[in-house]
Every structure is written in structure tokens, then in C-alpha cells.
């Protein structure tokens, strides 16, 4: 450890760089990621998914951040430029957007998550951080990375892997860490049919969250070794971590130790909103009286690009034509005009017109809902214009023919689907 930093009593986060892997395609979100990368997908009314990892880094005290982008990156890069451009080099802060720009070879995009870091080693070295915190840009959670950094230093590990305790048979969808009694990782299995349990707790397994801490010098050596290894897929989860479990010292860090919770949050919250069902559910859950995720926690704010908008407005007060929203989140610049909104989430700039009814609807920015439309259990993509009188959520077969309907009955609506309707 670099003692002169430690003697000053400075948090380790000040000597760390957060590196966010935000190239994800997010194909299980289907049409929602036709025009944007998964980290750029809207969440919670006015944020994007990537804002959670970035806010965690900022709130943890990390002031050097790099974001590697690849797939359909335009809206993500624009969001980062609008919302995250307040870092100042003269305060030893930096914010680098690192698109796959064929910097290493003319033909090469980022091949895997490790390659997305390897191709930018020179940029990392120019900032000279002591530690690297590698993050996925597409999960919803609040976490203090300083606590994980401290554990990494104290344990003397080569890599520390953040893990979440999950019921053992739910772990089949994750990379699972098999640990000994000191949480040293002794085996790493990707999506196992029979996950190993935690010592002393046969019903619980440790699932990797794709959050890693390394000392920078060690990480760079490992990336160079991996890049020279024939047949490697250049990926942290598939190559680097399994190699270090076998040949080095890999330590598990339990998310419950560093998860940030307000007084209102009963348990550690972490979600991969990578399917339409999971995305809809996580957004609608925010309408609960006491939601599992507290967006109102001033101690750990969710930073994002905040558009300058007028307040939300509710108009008309006639029976049957009353602008109202119950158990809902309504963002700025929304006008609820003579329509009733229940257990729904309206993002910035949504307009709903007279006699429309929305129930359990997740509506992305700048949508218009026409008069008399009745929509239940829907996700409406940005900018969609819902025609007058459209009914969704009553007839499953009709919904499935017109739109994308999931097995759980959530209907995703995009403008091209509306344009194809024969109304």
C-alpha cells in the first residue's frame, strides 16, 4: 500500500479510478435497446441505469472515472456529456468517455470486458491511480466502494470480487463464488446447475456482481498476460477472475457490508433490470408506499442529467375527466389532463389526455397518450404517440399480435409498432 497516502488519513477512494464497462447490448430488453445501449436506458422517471454506478463512485469519494462504451453509444455519450461534465482536472478529477475507437488495431472493437480496459491502459497510466474499481454500467444498486477498497487492502488480495448472498438455487443464473471460511475464493463457476453454498449456510450461495477491485499495477500486468494468451475471450468473468482464483489470491466482498441503505430500506437492494419484466417490475416497485429502493435518500443522492423543466401539472376536475395520479411517480414537465394515473411512473415531458387511464404503466420521456386510451401493465418507449382510444392489457392475444408481450403479461410499445397498427 502507498503509505504516504495512508498516513494522511486520506480515503482510499481518492486514490482509485472507477472504470465503468458500459458497452452492453442488453438484447433481452428487445426494442428498448434498438437505439441505445442498456446503460443508457431510462430508469425511475429521470435517470438512466448507468447513473447508479456513476453516483456510487462519486458518493464513495472516487474522483477519477472512465466509461468504456461500444454498442449504440450515442445517447449514452450525450447523457454523459450533459450530466457528468462537472469534473475538474485542477481538482485532480477526471471523467473519460472511452468509445471503442480501434486505438490498438485498425480492425478491433473491444473483444471482451478485459479488453475494454486493456485498450486504454495508457489513459489509466496517465492518471496514475493506486487502485482500479471495475464496474458494470447496467445494474441498479447503492454501494460504498470505499468499504470494498479498505477490505481489499487489508486482505492483501490480488483481486476482490463483490458478491451478493442469494438463495442457492437462484444462483444458477450467476457466476458463483465458492469460498472458504475466510471468504477466500477457492472456485469460480459460471451459471452452475448445482451452485456451491457458503460455509455454514447450505441454502445460500455467493453470486458475483461483476464489481472488482485491483491494485492498478497488478491489473495492468494481468491484462497484458491475458492479451498474450491464445484463445482467451479477453473477459473478466470468463478469463481473468478464474485465472486468479487458481493462480493468485481472490477474495469475496459481501455486498451486505457496503450496501448503502436509508432508514426506509429494509434490505440490501441490487437489481439487474435486463429483461422487460424485470425492468417494468423495478420501476413499478418505486410506487410502493415504502419502496425497496429509496430514491429520496439525501445522504446518497442519485446524480444524473437534470433537465430544466416546469413542474408537473394536473388539469380538469369533472367527474370522469379528472387529472389525477395515485401511488405514482410523475416527473417534471408532465401534464396529466383529465386522465387517471394509477401505480405508474411518468418520465419527463409526458402528456396524457382526457379520459385516458394508465395502470401500472412505465412511460418514458416525451410520450403522448391520446384521449380515451386505456393502458395496463405497459412499458412505453421514449417519444411514442399513443393513438386515441387504444386499449392495451385487456386482450392478451391482440396485444401479442400488435406489440411485444412478455410471458408475465407486460407489453412493450414502441413507435414503429404503433406505426404498423391498422387502426
Report on this structure.
Strands 1, 4, 5, 6, 8, 9, 10, 11 and 12 form a nine-stranded mixed β-sheet that branches. Strands 17, 18, 20, 21, 23, 25, 27, 28 and 29 form a nine-stranded mixed β-sheet that branches. The protein has a five-stranded parallel β-sheet with strand order 14-19-22-24-26, with no helix packed on it. The chain starts with a helix and ends with a helix. The protein has two domains: 12-287, Spore Coat Polysaccharide Biosynthesis Protein SpsA, Chain A (Alpha-Beta Complex), CATH 3.90.550.10; 313-420, UDP N-Acetylglucosamine Acyltransferase, domain 1 (3 Solenoid). The chain is globular and about 70 Å long. Strand 9 and strand 10 form a beta hairpin. It has 423 residues and is an alpha/beta fold. Residues 1-7 have low confidence and may be disordered. The chain is built from twelve helices and 29 strands. Alpha-D-glucose 1-phosphate binds at residues 110, 175, 190-191, 208. Homotetramer.
How are the SSEs placed, and which strands pair?
Elements: H1 3-7, E1 16-21, E2 42-43, E3 47-48, H2 50-60, E4 64-69, H3 74-83, E5 94-99, H4 113-118, H5 121-127, E6 131-136, E7 140-141, H6 145-155, E8 159-167, E9 175-179, E10 185-190, E11 204-215, H7 216-227, H8 236-247, E12 250-254, H9 255-258, E13 270-271, H10 276-285, E14 313-315, E15 317-318, E16 321-322, E17 324-326, E18 329-330, E19 335-337, E20 340-342, E21 345-346, E22 351-352, E23 357-363, E24 368-369, E25 374-380, E26 385-386, E27 391-392, H11 396-402, E28 404-405, E29 411-413, H12 415-420
Parallel strand pairs: 1-4, 1-6, 4-5, 8-12, 14-19, 17-20, 18-21, 19-22, 20-23, 21-23, 22-24, 23-25, 24-26, 25-27, 25-29
Antiparallel strand pairs: 2-3, 6-11, 7-13, 8-11, 9-10, 9-11, 15-16, 28-29
Domain Glucose-1-phosphate adenylyltransferase/Bifunctional protein GlmU-like C-terminal hexapeptide: 310-413
Family: Belongs to the bacterial/plant glucose-1-phosphate adenylyltransferase family.
Domain Nucleotidyl transferase: 19-287
Amino acid at each position: 500500500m502507498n503509505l504516504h497516502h495512508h498516513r494522511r488519513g486520506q480515503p482510499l477512494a481518492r486514490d482509485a479510478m472507477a472504470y465503468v464497462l458500459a458497452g452492453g447490448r442488453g438484447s433481452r430488453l428487445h426494442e428498448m435497446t434498438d437505439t441505445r445501449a442498456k446503460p443508457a436506458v431510462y430508469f425511475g422517471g429521470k435517470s438512466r441505469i448507468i447513473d447508479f454506478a456513476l453516483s456510487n463512485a462519486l458518493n464513495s469519494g472516487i474522483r477519477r472515472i472512465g466509461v468504456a462504451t461500444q454498442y449504440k453509444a450515442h445517447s449514452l455519450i450525450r447523457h454523459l456529456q450533459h450530466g457528468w461534465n462537472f469534473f475538474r482536472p485542477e481538482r485532480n478529477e477526471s471523467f473519460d468517455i472511452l468509445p471503442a475507437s480501434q486505438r490498438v488495431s485498425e480492425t478491433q472493437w473491444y473483444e471482451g470486458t478485459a479488453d475494454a480496459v486493456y485498450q486504454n491502459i495508457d489513459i489509466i497510466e496517465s492518471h496514475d491511480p493506486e487502485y482500479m474499481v471495475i464496474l458494470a454500467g447496467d445494474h441498479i444498486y447503492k454501494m460504498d466502494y470505499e468499504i470494498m477498497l479498505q477490505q481489499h487492502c487489508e486482505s492483501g488480495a490480488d483481486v476482490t470480487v463483490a458478491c451478493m448472498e442469494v438463495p442457492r438455487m437462484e444462483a444458477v443464473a450467476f457466476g458463483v463464488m465458492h469460498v472458504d471460511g475466510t471468504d477466500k475464493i477457492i472456485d469460480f463457476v459460471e451459471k452452475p446447475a448445482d451452485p456451491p453454498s457458503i460455509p455454514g449456510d447450505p441454502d445460500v450461495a455467493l453470486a458475483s456482481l461483476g464489481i472488482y477491485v485491483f491494485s492498478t499495477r497488478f491489473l495492468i500486468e494481468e491484462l497484458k498476460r491475458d492479451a498474450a494468451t491464445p484463445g482467451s475471450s479477453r473477459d473478466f468473468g470468463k478469463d481473468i477472475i478464474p485465472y486468479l482464483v487458481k493462480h493468485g489470491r481472490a477474495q469475496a466482498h459481501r455486498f451486505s457490508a457496503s450496501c448503502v441503505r436509508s432508514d426506509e430500506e429494509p434490505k440490501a437492494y441490487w437489481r439487474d433490470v435486463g429483461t422487460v419484466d424485470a425492468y417494468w417490475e423495478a420501476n413499478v416497485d418505486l410506487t410502493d408506499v415504502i419502496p425497496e429502493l429509496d430514491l429520496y435518500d439525501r445522504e446518497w443522492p442519485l446524480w444524473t442529467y437534470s433537465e430544466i423543466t416546469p413542474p408537473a401539472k394536473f388539469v380538469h376536475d369533472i367527474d370522469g375527466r379528472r387529472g389525477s395520479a395515485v401511488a405514482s411517480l410523475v416527473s417534471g414537465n408532465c401534464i396529466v389532463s383529465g386522465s387517471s394515473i394509477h401505480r405508474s411512473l411518468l418520465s419527463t415531458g409526458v402528456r396524457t389526455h382526457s379520459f385516458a387511464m394508465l395502470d401500472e404503466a412505465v412511460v418514458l420521456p416525451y410520450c403522448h397518450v391520446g384521449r380515451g386510451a386505456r393502458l395496463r401493465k405497459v412499458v412505453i418507449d421514449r417519444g411514442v404517440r399513443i393513438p386515441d382510444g387504444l386499449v392495451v392489457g385487456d386482450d392478451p392475444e391482440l396485444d401479442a399480435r400488435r406489440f411485444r408481450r412478455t410471458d408475465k403479461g407486460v407489453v412493450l410499445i414502441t413507435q414503429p409498432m404503433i406505426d404498423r397498427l391498422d387502426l
